Amino acid sequence: MESPAKFISQVRSEVGKIVWPNRREVVTTTIMVLIMATLAAVFFFLADLLIKTGLGQLLNLVG
């Protein structure tokens, strides 16, 4: 088992390898996530509406 001091040293070494995104990258990816979430919401809303309408028509036809 390694000593706590060696572990802390290794953690600091690994943290030094992290490449943090700049402000522009964060803003760009945030906008892209919001756009994709909106598109997914619209798609699932329309799919749900289509299924609801189709089942309603089918039930009216049968019943």
From TrEMBL:
Gene Ontology cellular component list: plasma membrane
Localization (cell): Cell membrane; Membrane
Molecular function per GO: protein transmembrane transporter activity
Pfam families per the UniProt record, alphabetical: SecE (PF00584)
Keywords: Cell membrane, Membrane, Protein transport, Translocation, Transmembrane, Transmembrane helix, Transport
PROSITE patterns: SECE_SEC61G (PS01067)
Single biological process term from Gene Ontology: protein secretion
Membrane protein topology class: Single-pass membrane protein
InterPro entries: SecE_bac, SecE_sf, Translocase_SecE/Sec61-g
Annotated TM spans: 31-51
Record-stated family: Belongs to the SecE/SEC61-gamma family.
Role of this protein: Essential subunit of the Sec protein translocation channel SecYEG. Clamps together the 2 halves of SecY. May contact the channel plug during translocation.
Xref: PANTHER family: PROTEIN TRANSLOCASE SUBUNIT SECE
NCBIfam families: secE_bact (TIGR00964)
Subunit structure: Component of the Sec protein translocase complex. Heterotrimer consisting of SecY, SecE and SecG subunits. The heterotrimers can form oligomers, although 1 heterotrimer is thought to be able to translocate proteins. Interacts with the ribosome. Interacts with SecDF, and other proteins may be involved. Interacts with SecA.
Name under which the protein is recorded: Protein translocase subunit SecE
